[in-house]
């Protein structure tokens, strides 16, 4: 009976971009692996009561809330947890498309300090997509309990992004998180994350495609990271083009580009 | 706009850029990309993390027991039973207390109306209809929920739910369903609508639909107080008071297990017929156990649930009480509309162990399951003298006076467990699946299951007893 | 040898995946990458799935998946 995601109509993306972005209110996205405490961070920052729970996949709907720091309002979006941005599950596409097309002013990746390696996998992918990334190293209490020590400076130096250790459940480190968010959104700090270099065969394939992409998609080159797009093309990910079509062309027809342009101007 | 069209054309041409790369080449590139990223992650992690070997890993020890071959299932059963026992034993006192207070207040309300010389019908609608239904919902439904949910949340926060899914997965696999369905079912205890939304964690549309359609076989919020109350007053009372809450808890556990079995059976049937297919890939992370924040969780979920129930009492129970009262008191030729409908339903209802009033209460309870018992009581009371049910134990008298036996209670519980989901859940199904079709399908298939199971059970019992 | 044949409490090193398409992506994204060490930790009391320790996380995988992963013991 041809039950594809489309025919059953699970159009989660459409709802998920349904956020009221206001001018002058920077948008901050919370991304991260499942079960790392994103909703706990979200609740601690906004005072809202998103449900939390110790199992991966607790948050499936995207929540938004506002918090204020130094008299500046921020709009915070709690994204569903994902291990990666490269598979094509609904959650991953929401997270990917949000970071890619709604273009938040800042993406905070909430990571589990007790399992850094797996979490860094996602951090690196987010850093490829956008420059404004902060790593929130959560569950520091659990890490301490398990006698795991993390050299924050070193980590921050390697990734070239700010790293804030937190215990979200006890509001530990959240002030620092707000402070750095404020500074980044008000452009007091500029972040240039470490950019991933791939093995030769990948880089060669990118080189073949990228110059052409640059000439052809010149109009949207300020809105989309073309190197990233090239990577998706050469690995055969077609969903990205579908999303581009959806968010750059179909959406902007209806809303005169509001959805997209706002995210980047704020 | 022109620019848009241009871009669209460019986009299509863009795709052709990679035409000359073969699929296998793309796969190789893709593998390399993932590998490179992980390799970098590993390198950075190794450089900045130092780990000391810890002596005992309590999480491992716990998993050795909680997922062990011999202890895994017994422990799950004991946990489930324990949670229900705590709920039942703990709910009795606040329930009686609330009932007394609320129905005392009803008396004062009546006096107020009398004093104000308000017309009889107005007093009837507002006090016997609206207020009394709300009072029933609050006194019967609130205490079990306010106890169950904090305990459940504790288990959830400690990390026990993924272990349940892990333990049960093989059953789901054999039913052609997804292992994470166990998680969405757990959410269903709170609210089936929430359970339906939780099915988003299931990737495959086929298995997601199975999980959606069968979610209401888990007794939600609005129903398991009904199960608990009926189990307490009909089955708990056959033994001495000390054991009654144990018996009641055992009955509720048995019902939940029956619900799970039927979920598996229906999932299996669905995956062999309407939703044919093989199980899709399944991966489940077993996160480390974490110490729950006892105090905060208890308070938070207690307040959440209380507010939730009170909100529903006002939003759904009050208007429903009004409508039902009107139906119970407007009549043709000396027979109320309610009786009329109940009589119409009666012959069929009897076949499945219910009576007309019970079945009618289920139908009128479509907006919210919480109001089924209040409607039933109103249906019974509207004919006779206006008894004042001032505590839960009086409920037993009302029901027995109207011909209830333990079999009626059993049939009612079974029907409550299996019948159509509430209106909110149906709307959520429509929203999640994007079509009315699946909401309607769920409505009819669950109800068919309820009727079939009830019929078989009731007729078998009649045959042998 | 296939990952599904790895005895409990034993470890092996992934040498390749035979999964295709979407499933391959997902397994790779979960960290089942050639060169990764996996350990079979425990088995569900219902007989399946089996939980593996993979890059610091315990992941339960069904036989349908582990049949598609090749390891060297
Ligand atoms: N010990 C400790 N536990 C925490 C901390 N932050 C969150 N938790 C707990 O970790 C669990 C997961 O937290 P959530 O906020 O639900 O995680 P999430 O990232 O939103 O998860 P998904 O929505 O499933 O992706 C909950 O049980 C929290 O109480 C922390 O800093 N320390
Ligand atoms: Mg969450």
Q: Could you characterize the architecture of this molecule?
A:
The complex is a heterotrimer of chains A (266), B (465) and C (73). Chain A has two domains: 5-185, P-loop containing nucleotide triphosphate hydrolases (Rossmann fold, 3-Layer(aba) Sandwich), CATH 3.40.50.300; 200-265. Chain A is 44% helix and 15% strand. Chain A contains eleven helices and seven strands. Chain A has a six-stranded mixed beta sheet, with helices on both faces. In chain A, α8 (200-216) crosses α9. The radius of gyration of chain A is 18 Å and the shape is globular. Chain B is an all-alpha fold and 465 residues long. Chain B contains 19 helices and four strands. In chain B, α4 runs antiparallel to α5 (120-158). The radius of gyration of chain B is 27 Å and the shape is globular. Chain B starts with a helix and ends with a helix. Chain C is built from two helices and five strands; from the N terminus they run βαβββαβ. Chain C has a five-stranded antiparallel beta sheet. The radius of gyration of chain C is 11 Å and the shape is globular. The chains are: A alpha/beta (266), B mainly alpha (465), C alpha+beta (73). At the B-C interface, α2, α6 and β2 of B face α1 and β4 of C. β2 of chain B pairs antiparallel with β4 (57-61) of chain C, so a sheet runs across the interface. Bound molecules: guanosine-5'-triphosphate (GTP) and magnesium ion. Residues 32, 34-40, 52-54, 56-59, 81, 138-139, 141-142, 167-169 of chain A line the site of guanosine-5'-triphosphate.
At a glance:
Chain B has 465 residues and is mostly helical. Chain B has two domains: 2-49, no CATH class; 72-279 and 290-464, no CATH class.
Topology, pairings included?
The complex is a heterotrimer of chains A (266), B (465) and C (73).
Chain A: H1 12-16, E1 27-32, H2 38-46, E2 63-69, E3 72-78, H3 90-102, E4 106-112, H4 116-129, E5 133-138, H5 140-145, E6 148-150, H6 152-159, E7 163-165, H7 174-185, H8 200-216, H9 226-234, H10 239-255, H11 258-265
Parallel strand pairs in A: 1-3, 1-4, 4-5, 5-7
Antiparallel strand pairs in A: 2-3
Chain B: H1 2-16, H2 23-48, E1 49-51, H3 58-66, H4 72-115, H5 120-158, H6 161-174, H7 181-190, H8 192-198, H9 205-214, H10 224-235, H11 241-272, E2 283-285, H12 294-329, E3 331-332, E4 335-336, H13 337-351, H14 356-364, H15 372-383, H16 392-401, H17 406-418, H18 423-433, H19 436-464
Antiparallel strand pairs in B: 3-4
Chain C: E1 11-17, H1 21-29, E2 37-43, E3 50-54, E4 57-61, H2 63-66, E5 69-72
Antiparallel strand pairs in C: 1-2, 1-5, 2-3, 3-4
The structure holds guanosine-5'-triphosphate and magnesium ion.
The site of magnesium ion has 4 residues of chain A, from helix 2.
């Amino acid at each position: 009976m041809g039950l594809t995601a489309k025919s059953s109509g699970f159009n989660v993306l459409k709802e998920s971009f349904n956020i009221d972005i206001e001018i002058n209110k920077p948008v901050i996205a919370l991304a991260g692996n499942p079960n790392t405490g994103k909703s706990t961070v979200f609740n601690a920052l906004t005072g809202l009561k998103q449900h939390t729970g110790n199992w991966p996949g607790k948050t499936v709907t995207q929540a938004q809330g506002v918090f204020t720091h130094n008299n500046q309002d921020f709009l915070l979006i709690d994204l569903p947890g994902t291990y990666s941005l490269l598979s094509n599950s609904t959650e991953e596409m929401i997270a990917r498309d949000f970071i890619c097309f709604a273009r938040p002013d800042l993406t905070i990746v909430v990571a589990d300090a007790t399992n850094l390696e797996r979490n860094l996998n996602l951090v690196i992918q987010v850093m490829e997509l956008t420059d404004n990334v902060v790593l929130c190293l959560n569950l520091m209490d659990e890490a301490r309990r398990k006698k795991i020590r993390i050299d924050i400076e070193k980590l921050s130096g390697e990734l070239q992004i700010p790293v804030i250790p937190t215990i979200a459940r006890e509001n530990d480190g959240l002030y620092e998180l707000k402070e750095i968010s404020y500074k980044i959104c008000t452009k007091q700090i500029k972040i240039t994350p470490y950019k991933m270099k791939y093995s030769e065969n990948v880089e060669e394939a990118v080189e073949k495609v990228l110059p052409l992409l640059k000439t052809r998609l010149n109009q949207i080159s300020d809105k989309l990271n073309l190197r990233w797009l090239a990577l998706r093309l050469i690995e055969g990910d077609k969903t990205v083009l579908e999303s581009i079509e959806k968010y750059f062309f179909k959406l902007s027809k209806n809303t005169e580009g509001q959805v997209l342009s706002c995210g980047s101007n704020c | 706009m022109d620019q848009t069209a241009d871009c669209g054309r460019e986009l299509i041409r863009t795709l052709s850029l990679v035409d000359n790369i073969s699929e296998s080449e793309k796969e190789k590139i893709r593998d390399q990309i993932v590998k490179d990223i992980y390799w970098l992650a590993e390198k950075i992690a190794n450089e900045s993390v130092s780990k000391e070997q810890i002596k005992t890993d309590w999480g491992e020890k716990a998993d050795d027991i909680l997922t062990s071959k011999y202890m895994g299932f017994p422990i799950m059963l004991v946990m489930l039973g324990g949670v229900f026992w705590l709920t039942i034993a703990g709910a009795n006192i606040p329930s009686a207390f609330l009932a007394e207070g609320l129905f005392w207040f009803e008396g004062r309300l009546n006096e107020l109306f009398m004093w104000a010389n308000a017309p009889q019908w107005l007093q009837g609608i507002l006090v016997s209809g609206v207020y009394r239904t709300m009072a029933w919902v609050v006194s019967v439904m609130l205490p079990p929920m306010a106890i169950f949910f904090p305990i459940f949340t504790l288990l959830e926060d400690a990390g026990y739910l993924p272990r349940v899914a892990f333990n049960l997965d093989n059953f789901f696999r054999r039913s052609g369903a997804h292992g994470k369905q166990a998680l969405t079912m757990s959410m269903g205890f709170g609210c089936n609508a929430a359970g339906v939304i939780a099915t988003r964690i299931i990737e495959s549309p086929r298995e997601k639909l199975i999980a959606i359609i069968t979610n209401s076989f888990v007794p939600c919020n609005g129903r398991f107080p009904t199960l608990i109350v009926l189990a307490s007053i009909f089955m708990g009372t056959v033994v001495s008071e000390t054991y009654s809450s144990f018996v009641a808890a055992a009955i509720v556990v048995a019902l939940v297990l029956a619900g799970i079995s039927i979920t598996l059976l229906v999932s299996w049937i669905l995956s062999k017929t309407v939703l044919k297919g093989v199980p899709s890939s399944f991966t489940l992370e077993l996160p480390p156990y974490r110490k729950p924040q006892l105090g905060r969780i208890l308070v938070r979920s207690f307040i959440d649930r209380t507010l939730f129930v009170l909100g529903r009492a006002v939003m759904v129970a009050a208007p429903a009480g009004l409508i039902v009262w009107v139906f119970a008191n407007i009549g043709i030729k000396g027979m109320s509309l309610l009786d009329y409908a109940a009589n119409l339903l009666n012959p069929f209802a009897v076949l499945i162990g219910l009576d007309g009033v019970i079945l009618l209460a289920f139908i009128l309870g479509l907006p919210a399951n919480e109001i089924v018992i209040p409607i039933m009581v109103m249906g019974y009371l509207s004919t006779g003298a206006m008894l004042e049910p001032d505590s839960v134990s009086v409920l037993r008298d009302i029901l027995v006076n109207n011909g209830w036996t333990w079999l009626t209670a059993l049939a009612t519980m079974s029907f409550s467990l299996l019948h159509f989901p509430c209106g909110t859940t149906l709307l959520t199904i429509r929203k999640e699946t994007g079509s009315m079709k699946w909401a309607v399908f769920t409505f009819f298939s669950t109800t068919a299951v309820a009727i079939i199971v009830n019929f078989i059970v009731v007729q078998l019992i009649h045959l042998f007893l | 040898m296939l990952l599904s044949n790895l005895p409990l409490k034993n470890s092996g090193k992934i040498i390749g995946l035979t999964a295709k398409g979407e499933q391959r992506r997902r397994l790779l994204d979960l960290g089942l990458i050639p060169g990764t060490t996996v350990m079979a930790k425990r088995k569900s009391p219902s007989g399946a799935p089996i939980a593996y320790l993979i890059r610091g996380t315990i992941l339960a995988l069904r036989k349908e998946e582990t049949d598609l992963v090749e390891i060297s013991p």
